[in-house]
Every structure is written in C-alpha cells, then in structure tokens.
C-alpha cells in the first residue's frame, strides 16, 4: 500500500492494521455513541443491548427516523420517495388486516401433545380466541408442532398517485390536550405532536388512563415513562402495575426490531424485563399476548448431527417422541411479514416458472456466455427462485441475464436499494446491451412497489413482469421482501443478487443470509473478482484477512493519527487537497465514511469541518446553504445523496439522485443531513471514485468485519484510511463477524418447501 500522496511526514506505508498510532484521548463523546451498528447489529440478549437501543432510538440517524411524513417532489409526474413509501405502507396495512382475519381460523388439534407442549398450544388457542392463557405456560419452552402459515394473499393494487397524500397531522385541539397532560406529568411538552400522532384520537385520555403509553413515542425510555406515571398516578403507581409490564414488553420488542431481530426468545425477553424492574416478567409477557400486543411462537429446533429422539417403549400407541422447541415472542407486524415472506418464497420455489422461450433457446444463451454467467442463466431458466452472490464486478452477470431474458421476450426488470445503485446498473446495461434511454429496465425497490418506477401492475395487482432481479439483496428487510414476493405473479422468476459480506438491512431480518443458509434453491457464486489492489484488499477482508497489498498507483493509502483533532484535520486535508492533487479526484467526488454520527470524529464534526472549507455559509435554513452536499432520508433505511439548490417558503429544495425534492421546513431536521461524511449504512449501495474512511481511536468497539468490508468497498479508484485504532482494525476483521439476529424465516420455510 502507498502512503498518503504528497502529504505530511506522519504518513507511513503498510497495511491498515500495521499503522501504529496512540489511542485517542479526550475524544469527547464516543464515536460509537450513534453508530448504525447500535441500531442494526447488536444482540438483544445481553443487558447492554436494551440500554443502548433506547439511546439509539433517541439519537438515531436521520435515515432511520425519517419515514413519518411525505416529502413533496418537484416537477414531473413521478411519485416522490415519501409518496412511494405511503403507498407501500397502505398496501401493507391492508395485507395485515387480511392476515389477521385468517389467523382467526381454527387451529388443527395436536392429538399427540402432552404436558407443557399441550399447555402452550392451548395458550395460543386461548389468545387467538380472546381468552387469557394460564401463567404456567411460560415457565419453560415446550415442544409442540408449528402451525403452518396460511396460503399467500395477493397484495391489492396500489391506489392512484393523486390519492397518495401526506398523513393528516393531528388536530390542534388534540395536540393541546396532550400538551396539558404532558405538562401535568412533567414530560417535555414538545412531545405533544408526536404523541398525538402515535396514540391517535383521544390520546390525552389514553395517557391519563395508562401513562406508560408514552413509551410508544420514539426516544422515550422506561425510566422517563415511570417518572411521568408517578407524577400522574401518585400513590397508585407501582412497579408491578400490569400496564407498565405490558408497555415495557412491547418497548423491548420494538428495540429488538431496531437491532434487527424479528422476535426474541422467551428467556431473553424475560431476562430483559427483569433488568427493567418488572417484578413478574412471565405475567407481563402473558398479559401482552392476551391483549394482542405481542404474539407467541414455538419453533422446532433442528440439531445437526444429533440422533432422533427415541420412541417411548411403554407407549402402546407408539406416539411420536416430543421434539425440542424454542418459544419466541414478537410484534405482529414482523411476525406476519415473515410468515408472508415464507409463503411467497415457497410459492416461487415449488412452482414451475412460466415457459417464455424453449429449453433449447435458454441453453443457446447460456452456451454463448461463460463460467458463472452461464450457470446463472441456466438456473434462472428452470427455477422460480435463484440466489446470486458476488462483488461489484459480478453485476455484469445479472446484466447479461437481463439481456438474455429480454431477448426471449420476457418482461425482465432489475431493482436496486437506492437511486444511485439504479443509475449505476442502468449505465452498465447501456454499455453491455442495446437499451436506449427511453426505457432501461432498472428501478429502485421502493419505486417498483409503489408503481412510481418499473413496469406497473396487471389487472390482478401483481407486478407486470416475468423476471425480477433484485440487486443489493442483503439490504432487504422482512417487510420489504414480503411485499416483493407477494407482488410477483404466478410463474415469475425472482433472482436475489448481492454481496453477502456487506452490512445487513437497517430493518429487522436477515433475509438474504437466511436464504443462503437454508439452501432451498439454486445458488450461483460469481467467479468474477473485483480487480486491482482495492479488489484484492476487500476480498481478503471478506474472508477475515487484512492483507498488505501492492498499490503502485496509490490506490490504497494509510494515514496514521494520534487523536481526534488530528483525525479531523487530516481528513479535511485529504479531501480538499491531497486526493485532488495526487490522485486527480475532485473533492465533490470524494466521500468520507466514519462509524457514527456523534463523537469528536463523527459525521457531525467532520461535516462541520468540511463545510467550512468547501462551502462556508451562514446556514440560514436549518444549517444548510445552497451548494451543500447532503443525504436525504425519505424513509428509514434509505439514504439518497444530493445537494442543496435553494430554500424558500416551500422548504429546502434538493437535487438528489432520484430527481428534485422539496423538503418542508418542519421535516428538514429529521430527514436531511450534511453529506460530505456519512456512515457505512448510509453508504451501502453507492460507490465513489475516492473514499476516505476515518477510524478514530474511540470507534474501536464499533468495528466489525462487515463494517470494514462495506466501508472499504465503497471506493472505485482510491481509498485513504485515517487510522487511529491500532490493532483493533485487524482484530475486527479477523474476529468480529456480523452480530447475530433472531429470525424465524428458516424454520418457516422448512415445512413449506418441497423436497
């Protein structure tokens, strides 16, 4: 690797892990204080998880808190990102209502169950019939057969664009009523609009009757809700109040979802409740289930290599032995989404794809390709679901598949995580095929689902296509993946493609990783390596090795630093002077990536320093000036880079990759950040000619192999590493994999996919 190009004497050659520098001292707030890992990768099983989850919710990045309103588009007929999100949410609500009705159907009797297994099944029946289950059910996990999910329900066709309006703001009198109640309880009155919107009609009376409902407001923690309840209830407030137990149970499940879990194992949830001062955790969970605020599941455990349970010789009927199970508790929205996703995937796997083109024609196209590209074409020809893995260079293979399918007359489209990835893939399609600018078959996932992009929908409400290639598949959360699979018509083919080593989705679930582990469909691993020193470096990181690579063109540069102040200084120096002068990449094409938003070297501090050098100004509109680089987050998990055009009475006018956007002034603080520096989760799905990755000493705990792989892999031509974590970097690459997530998808798929 090279040293920093033509810069100060502190730069030394070597691998990122070899750069010696003293750990930062006096760094102020830890840069890990607001990392995306705190919201997307921590385990809810340890005590610190629940502590940090609320901190993350209170100070989450704007891209994770920005899905509550509508951002008006500029000129043109296409829907805005927010309107697209509203359409998808509306259809999701309709689907959930349908699934609720289905879940009221009778449960098949478990004739061979006994003991605790029978008790647990009876509890599930009791909950679904509106009764209250007995407390003894929750003493230990118990074996019982899993109830199969109902048949898939076709998603209704989205409403017309003109009917997609911003959600109605709560009435002023409703907000005023909530404000009075908050004032009486000593809570910040600034929470009134949000509380009124979340709690709905009669929010003030609901808060009086159950003060712990304040926990439903984002950023409120149990101890704050307890103080509010004591002020309102006085002597009636007690730690064993059933209302408190239910509210804390739901809050913990919501924090687990922020960490990526779709459900929590019962022992984990009970432990977390006890740590939050709930005297009788079992009763709290039981009450939450009885009230319909949470759902309980039991999933059979498959122990690889373990012998099958022996039959009881004393059983005259020869009953099957009980199998070990795990009991999980989850929120309804994620449970239904995961069941729906399993249904849709099983439908694709077990159905023969539509025969558009003969087997001979598909084979001719495969023979014209080579290597893993030919394997991908053959797999897609005969299967409804195919998984494709690989790095940036491997995108050429889905592009070839798309060309091949369209040459046979198939309605084939590709969808990406965001507009930057869409535009890059569209450019690749133009280079490798005959697509004109009139219609390049590439869209964003959100645009495809809403109808704002892509082929639209047929008369049955299904997407009007025969083949869908979803790139950036690791970014699919369970709700988005469920909407996609439900939207595919019968006989369609779905190819999920992506790099399994990058960070997982911001939303709950690990869909792509679960499918790779389940092995229910063909998997094609690309044999096209990413080229050059950068490709060699990132490929090594993917297998846990931080290798020293030769970089004769200064493709990789290590810049050791000793403290946060030096890290900020050297970062600005690289972006403004060194990289443009020595590498030839201008500042506007260089992206800074750092582990978190807070701290002395977080995105806030770095963006302030970079703005001062690159676009100084008074920041009259929420801290922004025309020409500022920004990141717009129209919905949680989506980050669209752009620039500020102007500000007026309408709001902040932006020019983003998806087109012009106008953000109302009341939404600016929640949905727009400066964008010279961003986190790795914000950067997923995008690439830049040059990237500067900043690793301050206080960010060591936030590092993991997926984080380093994602951050380093955003660079096309040049990577500079501002290095202050000493041996924490090679240790993270070698020893810190992705944090586990609790999901049910593999168990749900097992009985529904034919052998």
Condensed summary:
With 755 residues, this protein is of the alpha/beta class. The protein has 27 helices and 21 strands.
What does this structure look like?
By secondary structure, this protein is of the alpha/beta class. Helices cover 39% and strands 13% of the residues. The chain has 27 helices and 21 strands. The strands form 4 sheets. It has a 6-stranded parallel sheet with strand order 1-12-21-20-13-19. Helix 25 links the parallel strand 20 and strand 21. Helix 5 packs across helix 6 and helix 10 (266-275) crosses helix 11. The longest helix has 23 residues, at 81-103. The chain is globular. The two termini are 50 Å apart. Residues 3-78, 106-117, 132-166 and 303-308 have low confidence and may be disordered.
Number of strands: 21
Q: Averaging pLDDT over every residue, what do you get?
A: 81
Number of helices, where a helix is a run of at least 4 consecutive DSSP H or I residues: 27
Decide which structural class fits the backbone: alpha/beta
For the largest beta sheet, what order do the strands appear in spatially? 1-12-21-20-13-19
Give the biggest beta sheet: 6 strands, parallel
Unreliable spans are 3-78, 106-117, 132-166, 303-308
